[in-house]
Amino acid sequence: MNNQIKGLHHITAIASDAQRNYDFYTRILGLRMVKKTVNFDDPQTYHFYFGDEQGTPGTILTFFPWTHARAGKPGTGMATEIGYAVPADSLDFWQQRFKEMNVPHGPVREEFGDTVLPFSDPDGLQLKLVVPANADPRKPWTTNAVNENKATRGFHSVALSLKNTDDTAKILTDIFGYNLDNQENNRYRFKTDVIETANLVDLILDPEAGHGINAAGTNHHVAFRVSDEEVLMHFREKILSAGFNITPKINRDYFFSLYFREPGGVLFELATDNPGFATDETVENLGTSLRLPKQYEQAREQIEKILPKLTQA
């Protein structure tokens, strides 16, 4: 049994406007909408999945676009930065694109030997494009505006802001199998060698910072990747044995998952590779129609009337 964590599976964030969120991630950032469904606990709210062609784990950024959601506040106890890998020599293109499209962005900087361009989405979610020291070999989703030499490859890293990093670090090392790879000032980089991409987690030590407020423009949870349900339940036992509360296995239609809150306050999920996103749509048609969890299918007409109208390219 390949009973190891295989890096990041997906990251879920909160937005305030469905159309604006869709436009930004597909038309500006050039991602594919892999799945258009609804929040399992709130079927009057969309759940969008953006990623590569097939929604490969390690490429999937998802959103709950709650209409008129108040602005959140990044802070401790949450993921505060999402990194996407991009090819060498692509940052000039992205800087110009962000300038033309009025995307807030900062100056290019160096971080752990990588070249980084920070930017934010329309709700203020903090992201960055990263040219890694070693080129990312994943095949990207491309558009007419964002070709293969510029397109994002999927996640490079995620950063968690914490008042104390020690106990969170133990989760990463003792349970998830990561190792401390590097440190720059108050940022500690953890890495798993099980997979070559989407395999980095940064812990930012900031004891004086305020707690984050989870609303629009902030991250809801971070999901780590496992192969299948057998491995998922193996980790459930490990987490229980370490003294943490963790949910039963939950069927999310496109993966099976568990949730627990790590000691620093960040909501962690473990999610399986199986069955994937092409279970109710073909790969060619992913994200083109509204898919509903089985329990809501009988209420489709009512749900479709409530959900905001969405114009897709």
Characterization of the model:
Helices cover 16% and strands 35% of the residues. The chain is globular. It has a single domain (8-306), classed as 2,3-Dihydroxybiphenyl 1,2-Dioxygenase, domain 1. By secondary structure, the protein is of the alpha+beta class. It has five helices and 16 strands. It has helices spanning 18-28, 91-100, 166-175, 229-241, 300-306, and strands at 8-15, 32-39, 42-51, 60-65, 78-85, 109-111, 114-120, 126-131, 154-162, 179-184, 187-191, 200-205, 219-226, 250-251, 255-261, 267-275. Strands 2-3-4-1-13-16-15-14 form an eight-stranded mixed β-sheet. An eight-stranded mixed β-sheet has the order 6-7-8-5-9-12-11-10, covered by helices on one side.
From the structure above, extract its key features.
eight-stranded mixed sheet, single chain, about 35% strand, about 325 residues
What would CATH call the architecture? Answer: Roll
CATH topology: 2,3-Dihydroxybiphenyl 1,2-Dioxygenase, domain 1
| Rounded Rg | 18 Å
- Tally of individual helices: 5
Number of domains: 1
Approximate strand percentage: 25-35%
CATH class bucket: Alpha Beta
Overall body shape: globular
> Major sheet: order of its strands?
2-3-4-1-13-16-15-14
The CATH superfamily label reads 2,3-Dihydroxybiphenyl 1,2-Dioxygenase, domain 1
Alpha carbon gap, first and last residue: 42 Å
Say how many strands there are.
Answer: 16
